[in-house]
Amino acid sequence: MERINVNLGKRSYPIFIEHGILGNISKIVREYFSGRKILVITDSNVVDLYARQLAAGLENEGFQTFVEVVPAGEASKSLARAEDLYNAALDHRLDRKSAILALGGGVVGDLAGFIAATYMRGIGFIQVPTTLLAQVDSSVGGKVAVNLPRAKNIVGAFYQPKLVIIDPDTLLSLPEREFAEGLVEVIKYGIIRDEDFFRWLEQYIKNLRQNTADLVHAIKRSCEIKAAIVSEDEAECGLRMVLNFGHTVGHALEAVFGYGTLLHGEAVALGMVFEAKIALNRGLIDERTFLRIEGLVKSAVPKDLPHRPDPDSLIESMSFDKKNLNEKITFILPERLGRVGVYSDITAKEILQAIAP
Ligand SMILES: NC(=O)c1ccc[n+]([C@@H]2O[C@H](COP(=O)([O-])OP(=O)(O)OC[C@H]3O[C@@H](n4cnc5c(N)ncnc54)[C@H](O)[C@@H]3O)[C@@H](O)[C@H]2O)c1
Ligand SMILES: O=C(O)C(=O)C[C@@H](O)[C@H](O)[C@H](O)COP(=O)(O)O
Ligand SMILES: [Zn+2]
């Protein structure tokens, strides 16, 4: 079993990665959680695939388990859905010793984590991610949130799980489109932090899904990079912003086109290429570096914009980004492969030149 730690001062928590671990989860959960009640939050696709098996295992270990199902898709990351789940928690008489277990992709993880962070001012939280994106990114680091129609992840908290349990076997049932969007956040780690990993991906990304050892390597390396960054800067005071490369534009595209039109990873793929273009136009990176970034991203997600976005809506949406200070739109831009910087002086003209010329 692979184990990576997220170290946060006096607290730390493990990320376990192992094939088939889902069938054997209850003993590990018992080790990290002494309460009795667990509310499993999952979605309408994942429930029939994994929730029953998981709940049965937990019941065998003596946990009282409840399962709540939200509709699959980004629209479930809403205050309305959160209210339904608070009511379910009350119905089940969850108390401060109870835990929420997120079983699913990033939507379920962010929503369930938001409930865990706020119900009774915070109860136990366990992440069991079942998409590639959630295994390499959203289950680690404690960003939990719901969306408002105009702004992604705008109501949320930093709330860390007690543990993260990753079973790569769950990816066998993941549709191709959702697998591909997960690759985008994997590529992000190479661009922001690890040139060797980027080069490795250039060579192996095409067959990653088929080659289990390579897939586990990609998950592990991604978790290591994210864990190291979060361990240094949990609350995004500085360094953690690098994880937001591609997201100033990506989140704006998600909101402007309507949540769910583009998957998160697809929007971030476009965002990374557009933001790399801003960097190229500014002379921060050379043409060859831009083409390598564009080439690798497009090899994973060859998607284009559904249509040209309205420029004013796009800029307005970026004005809600959480990295902004003093109303300056903030970007994470590549300076070379493996290194990015924070820029708050990009003009609307530069932005639109790269995105919607
Ligand atoms: N908190 C963070 O740090 C962080 C990081 C990255 C992304 N996110 C958020 O994560 C969300 C995107 O996550 P996602 O891409 O996992 O989307 P998702 O949760 O919507 O899952 C994608 C689809 O895959 C289905 N699915 C999940 N697991 C499956 C499996 N094993 N087999 C078959 N189908 C399965 C889901 O039902 C859904 O239809 C966005 O809301 C994004 O903002 C958060
Ligand atoms: O963990 C982080 O920090 C990230 O920025 C990871 C991103 O991939 C993720 O999409 C995150 O939810 C974005 O956070 P936000 O603060 O920009 O909403
Ligand atoms: Zn992301």
Automatic annotation (TrEMBL):
Q: Does the keyword Metal-binding apply?
A: yes
Query: What's the record's note on cofactor binding?
Result: Binds 1 divalent metal cation per subunit. Can use either Co(2+) or Zn(2+).
Q: What is its EC number?
A: 4.2.3.4
Record keywords: Amino-acid biosynthesis, Aromatic amino acid biosynthesis, Cobalt, Cytoplasm, Lyase, Metal-binding, NAD, Nucleotide-binding, Zinc
The answer, when asked if NAD is one of the entry's keywords, is yes
Its function, per the record, reads: Catalyzes the conversion of 3-deoxy-D-arabino-heptulosonate 7-phosphate (DAHP) to dehydroquinate (DHQ).
Q: Which family does it belong to?
A: Belongs to the sugar phosphate cyclases superfamily. Dehydroquinate synthase family.
Q: Which GO terms describe its cellular component?
A: cytoplasm
User: What HAMAP family does the entry give?
Assistant: DHQ_synthase
Name the top EC class: lyase
**Residues annotated as binding NAD(+):** G106, V107, V108, G109, D110, T130, T131, K143, K152
Q: Which residues bind Zn(2+)?
A: E185, H247, H264
Which CDD domains does the entry mention?
DHQS
Q: Which reaction does it catalyse?
A: 7-phospho-2-dehydro-3-deoxy-D-arabino-heptonate = 3-dehydroquinate + phosphate
Cofactor(s) this protein requires? NAD(+); Co(2+); Zn(2+)
State its location(s): Cytoplasm
Q: Name a GO molecular-function annotation.
A: metal ion binding
3-dehydroquinate synthase C-terminal domain segment(s): 182-324
Its ancestry begins with: Bacteria, Bacillati, Bacillota, Clostridia, Thermosediminibacterales
Q: Gene name?
A: aroB
Describe which pathway this protein belongs to, using the record's wording: Metabolic intermediate biosynthesis; chorismate biosynthesis; chorismate from D-erythrose 4-phosphate and phosphoenolpyruvate: step 2/7
The name this protein goes by in its record: 3-dehydroquinate synthase
Q: Which GO terms describe its biological process?
A: amino acid biosynthetic process; aromatic amino acid family biosynthetic process; chorismate biosynthetic process
Residue ranges occupied by any 3-dehydroquinate synthase N-terminal domain in the UniProt entry: 69-180
